[in-house]
Amino acid sequence: MNNIKENKLIKIIISPIFTILIAIGAFIKIPLPYVPFSLQFLFVNLSGIFLGYTFGSYSILLYIILGLIGFPIFSKGGGIGYILQPTFGYIIGFLISTFLIGKITIKIKSSFINYFIISLLKLCIIYFIGVLYYYLISNFYLITTKGIIWIILYGIVIFIPGDIIICFVSSFIAVKYKNFKL
Question: What is the pTM of this model?
Fold first, then answer.
């Protein structure tokens, strides 16, 4: 029983550290047209793997709250108005995918292949929510009439190589350090 309490305390302490890493990851980026490629997904993915669905989601929720109350920790700033940025859907996808995939992660055997598959699934959820949000905000709020093909090209296709590398790296890190057991 005492070990469970210690484990929970460690996750409570480490959750804000992942929040900070996600914020830092937003600024380690390669500028691309319309949506920058950043290292946020690396830290979002690792937070879910190491902290599980509850505390991983808490770290991302804290990131979202801090950004929306005005801390400039999103890739293009911060503040409540950021909800109307077309890229905010990816941030929503971070939270939803961490919760959903975190539920699966606790039931799988620790292996590179399993973490890689889970990472790809998580990425697909983020892409789906991000592209849907981008399409809705662009076409119904910003009135820019971005077609779905254009949004898929600039919201998914140009990121696939880098994101697959991130899935690979985060899976390697997870296998290497998951035995550390948080």
Answer: 0.90
